[in-house]
Amino acid sequence: MKKIAIINQKGGTGKTTTAVNLGGGLALEGYKTLLVDVDPQGNLATWFNPEYERSLYHFLVEDESPDSCIVEVRENLYLLPSDKTAAQAEKILTGQTSRETILMRKMSEVDDYDVIIVDCPPSLSLLNQNALIYARTAYLPVSMNYLALVGVRNLLENIRQINEIMDRDVKVSLVIPTFYDKRTNESKEIYETLKEHFDGKVTEPIRTNVRLSEASSYNQTIFEYAPNSHGAEDYSTLVERVIENG
Amino acid sequence: MKKIAIINQKGGTGKTTTAVNLGGGLALEGYKTLLVDVDPQGNLATWFNPEYERSLYHFLVEDESPDSCIVEVRENLYLLPSDKTAAQAEKILTGQTSRETILMRKMSEVDDYDVIIVDCPPSLSLLNQNALIYARTAYLPVSMNYLALVGVRNLLENIRQINEIMDRDVKVSLVIPTFYDKRTNESKEIYETLKEHFDGKVTEPIRTNVRLSEASSYNQTIFEYAPNSHGAEDYSTLVERVIENG
Ligand SMILES: Nc1ncnc2c1ncn2[C@@H]1O[C@H](COP(=O)(O)OP(=O)(O)OP(=O)(O)O)[C@@H](O)[C@H]1O
Ligand SMILES: Nc1ncnc2c1ncn2[C@@H]1O[C@H](COP(=O)(O)OP(=O)(O)OP(=O)(O)O)[C@@H](O)[C@H]1O
Ligand SMILES: [Mg+2]
Ligand SMILES: [Mg+2]
Fold it and tell me: Apex CA B84: angle with CA B47 and CA A179, to 5°?
């Protein structure tokens, strides 16, 4: 079972858009996929707009079973949603012992999926630490600008500390260049810088494509909303790479 | 003395870029301007890259004076920087009484500026609450996509709760459309939606312009880096509006 945390504490680098479309693409390829939202902004539930009654809060704090919190959003695609109650969950968990491993412990009984993708908020929060410690594999969507690069350095330091303190082996497995615009030097330079630092882990870029954001307002994946768009093309390429990565 | 919190818990909506260029533009117009960074990512210090020894942590937790924490970055432009020690500050403050008003109390002796701009992180954190309660005036940079609109609703609810609980009169004074791309319907629709909901408070949009992000890697404001760009034009228009607003 493959577990992935989609993480970058810089805001707006395409984490949620990647969770939706990587998850959606894997589901279309027949992989039973669970999306777990650990962001109190609850953008995954906003995106798919499912009916739900229980969320991350009930799962982590009120000890509800995974089945009562997970909803099916597509064939092969499931969601454990989040909303602002997750902020309350984080406050409560902050006071507990072993607070960085609660997600790992609660998720240990969830083993009937092929892939589990955790969508993270833009911060270095307790829930993010839980996501990294649980999944141990991190994918970093990095937007093509200088401030996003700076964020990567902070995140790597955070991961290094987790590995040291928790004796966990959290790895950055893929770096996904997002908002790539081939007309700008900036995109090319940031892309090259990433390739130098993360040799072999940098995926083909996801180009800026308005269809990707439009899809969210129609509650659709890019494959449903605009299957012939650059956005669909680029996320298909990513899906293939993730499947190959094993 | 005008105090402004630049806030939106959605990530990457142009908060920091707005703080830099609104602040930089006001300074050029002769207004003595202080930028206060309450984001542990410390992007304002990254942007201007000044020498500094004391930051928000020392100011809020170790009771250092404002003068020992504020650095001059340009003529008329000053910075109280932040870095990951601010995350530590937030943890410590969480345990204290009156933790939502610490910034307001510490900043009460800072009164020799014309404008103070607080740059906020993408979250609904304690430091953000402090920023809102201190400044009482919020400017919301909103990027032209559906998920950013969803974030606005959450933020307004947060502000409503602060006003109720703290009996503070926090107001959204301006809504700044960012990443505006006139070629897309999405930009036009989101812009129209904002104008319906925030009648009279929506500024002229800031268009997507790569010069704005490039400027950060040269440690410059847009007026220094690319004075003839659309980015400079749009932020000049914003500076004028803010000066008019009084
Ligand atoms: N390649 C792209 N082209 C165009 N729009 C995109 C692209 N990727 C993401 N977007 C849009 O940009 C906005 C920000 O992306 P998204 O919300 O996925 O980032 P995020 O990293 O999850 O943000 P946050 O830090 O707030 O969680 C969204 O409206 C999204 O639909
Ligand atoms: N109008 C614009 N056109 C092009 N690039 C922009 C524009 N506004 C901001 N950017 C760039 O986009 C990135 C995100 O913007 P910025 O960091 O200002 O957003 P933010 O809301 O402060 O993000 P965070 O939520 O992480 O604090 C930065 O690299 C910035 O330089
Ligand atoms: Mg997100
Ligand atoms: Mg910022």
Answer: 50
Q: Is A215 left (phi over 0), alpha (psi -120 to 50) or beta?
A: alpha
pLDDT of residue A246: 61
Cβ of residue B216 lying under 6 Å from some atom of ligand 2: yes
Specify the residue for token string 């939606």: B193
Tell me the per-residue pLDDT of A184-230, one tens digit each, with 9 for 90 and over: 999 999 999 999 999 999 999 999 999 999 999 999 999 999 999 99
Supply the pLDDT for residue B245.
Answer: 84
| Residue nearest to ligand 2 atom 12, measured at CA | B213
pLDDT for A245 equals 84
Q: Name the residue facing B146 among A11, A94, A216 (closest C-beta).
A: A216
Per-residue b or e along B27-55, where b marks 16 or more CB atoms closer than 10 Å to that residue's CB: bbeebbbbbbbbbbbbbbbbbbeeebebb
Residue B246: its pLDDT value, please? 60
- The SS3 call for residue B79 is strand
- At B241, the amino acid letter reads R
DSSP-derived 3-state class of residue B221: coil
CA dihedral A57, A62, A63, A64 (to 10 degrees): -70
pLDDT, block means (10 residues), chain A with 246 residues: 96 98 98 97 97 96 96 98 93 92 96 98 93 96 95 92 90 97 96 96 98 97 98 98 88
B33: Cβ–Cβ under 8 A, 6 or more apart, which residues?
B23, B26, B27, B76, B77, B78, B113, B114, B115, B116, B117
Ligand 2 pocket test, pick from B211, B212, B225 with the greatest ligand atom count within 8 Å of Cβ, gives: B212
Q: Which A-chain residues 46-85 have CB contacts (< 8 A) with chain B?
A: 46-47, 84
Q: Tell me the three state secondary structure of residue B138.
A: strand
Which residues fall within 8 angstroms of residue B39, CB to CB, at 6 or more apart?
B16, B82, B86, B119, B120, B121, B127
